[in-house]
Amino acid sequence: MKFDLDPEYLEYQHAARELAQSIEDIAFEADAMNEIHPGILSALQKSGISSMMVPARYGGLFEEIDPLAICVTREVFMGVSSHLDSLFALQGIGSYAITAAGSEEQRAKWLPAVAKAEILPALALTEPEAGSDLKAVTTKVTSDGDGLLLNGVKSFISNAGSAGFYLVFVRDDSGHSIVLVPADTEGVSITPTDELIAPHVLGDVTFDNVRLPKSAYVGEPGKGLDLVLATLSIFRVSVAGAAVGLAQAALEEAVRHTRMRKQFGRPLAKLGPVAHMLADSWTEIEMARLLTYRAASMAQSDPAKSIEYSSMAKLAASEMASRVVDRCVQMMGRFGLVKGSKIERLYRQARPMRIYEGSSEILRMGIARELTRIVP
Ligand SMILES: Cc1cc2nc3c(=O)[nH]c(=O)nc-3n(C[C@H](O)[C@H](O)[C@H](O)COP(=O)(O)OP(=O)(O)OC[C@H]3O[C@@H](n4cnc5c(N)ncnc54)[C@H](O)[C@@H]3O)c2cc1C
Predict the structure, then answer these.
(1) 94 and 132 together in one domain
(2) Predicted local distance difference test score (pLDDT) of residue 325
(3) Contact in structure between 152 and 107 (CB atoms under 8 Å)
């Protein structure tokens, strides 16, 4: 058993660092935006890194999407810019159902452009009345002559307004399905969502009598939930990677501060309780990183079977990031509270990670269900 990343992953990490460093000057401005920052998008496009999100036969980097490579990349991105991290992550999350089950026509039309980040995708699951309880969605597809009719509202959809297409989770006669809706289809409209404490490119999407061909189904009708699960199997663990990166960045800020600043004649870092907070934070980050890399490696060989490990990694890392960044603010005293400082930004950005892509409570329920099933 070895615990170090293989050389190829160090290369992905290196490429991610180069890109992250190149946008560091605009990270603060981008992370405050509710719309796509053109400079970040263009840097991502030039880097070619979003090709990780699509299989090689459609212009991607790997034969099969590699969750560990995505994790390592998000870890680096999130430490510098949540805007960059989210833009990158969405290229996979918003298109994976097509990769997994789309028709040849859908794959050939959309995936090569997603690989180059020339088109941004979006995955529309959440509705005003349906969040964690996904099966309760009311957005509906009905038959309409030779085609389909789509009606409903999706809310808090990342990339809304900038996406080239929406993968929409709907209810229909066969249960739950996913349909692909090009953004310029008549009847699709976007309204901005309320601004979050950590700004994010988000919008609500209304589908008002949207007419679609029957070929808009991604995979078989009735298999929508399976496709959502398949997406989570690959990408949930990458949120853990991002959370580890955020915590690491926060800790480095706290280390730099507490090494320099003296109180009672000594650097803060040498004062017992502060030293303990530093040590606990480093220890917790390392624990979460190990679990994250392990879960990502498992997701690479058998995504569906390892979903509970991905859930554990996401739960552990996102809860850890909140604890660590809170401690870092504490160690930095009043300087940790300054609006516009990096630590303040990280503090706000840690919070949503415990809510999206499976809230901590929902994850715990799934993990406990699996545990009670497998123990003889
Ligand atoms: C930054 C951001 C980006 C997002 N992007 C997208 C996107 O691209 N696409 C998309 O579809 N959605 C997106 N969402 C929405 C996100 O998926 C939902 O917020 C999430 O599913 C939780 O749903 P909710 O907010 O409605 O909370 P609710 O489901 O109302 O839950 C509220 C609280 O109750 C708890 N709870 C709920 N049910 C149970 C239960 N059975 N047992 C115990 N506790 C429970 C939850 O854990 C939570 O703490 C995004 C959200 C954010 C914040």
Answers:
(1) no
(2) 98
(3) no
Do the beta carbons of residue 321 and residue 244 sit within 8 Å?
yes
What integer is the mean pLDDT of 16-42?
A: 98
Instruction: Provide the 10 A C-beta neighbour count for residue 81.
Output: 26
pLDDT at 103 over 90: yes
Q: Are 146 and 214 in contact (CB under 8 A)?
A: yes
The rounded mean pLDDT for the chain is: 97
Q: Of the residues 67, 99, 115, which one is the last residue of a structural domain? A: 115
Cβ of 124 closer than 6 Å to ligand 1, yes or no, is yes
Q: By residue range, what is the domain housing residue 344?
A: 225-374
pLDDT at 302: 84
Whether residue 156 has its Cβ less than 6 Å from ligand 1: yes
Residue 145 has pLDDT above 90, yes or no: yes
342's enclosing H/E stretch is helix 342-350
Q: Is residue 323 over pLDDT 90?
A: yes
Mutation to probe ligand 1, out of 355, 363, 365 (largest number of atoms < 8 A from CB): 355
**SS3 call for 37:** coil
The response to whether residue 359 sits with its C-beta less than 6 Å from ligand 1 reads: yes
Does 89 sit in the ligand 1 pocket, CB within 6 Å? Answer: no
Choosing from 75, 308, 319, 357, the catalytic residue is 357
- What DSSP assignment string belongs to 68-130? HHHHHHHHHHHHH-HHHHHHHHHHHHTTHHHHHH--HHHHHHHHHHHHTTSS-EEEE---SS-
So what's the pLDDT on residue 56? 98
Convert the pLDDT of each residue in 231-255 to its tens digit: 998 999 999 999 999 999 999 999 9
Active site residue 118: no
- Distance CA(348)–CA(78), nearest Å, equals 13
CATH of the domain at 14: 1.10.540.10
Longest dimension (CA), the chain: 81
Task: Output the pLDDT for position 304.
Answer: 83
- Domain count for the chain: 3
Domain boundary among 115, 144, 177: 115
Question: Is the distance from the beta carbon of residue 356 to the nearest atom of ligand 1 less than 6 Å?
Answer: yes
Shared domain check, 366 and 232: yes
Structural tokens at position 192: 């901005």
Of 332 and 1, the structure prediction assigns the larger pLDDT to 332
Task: Report how far ligand 1's centroid is from the alpha carbon of 56 (Å).
Answer: 33
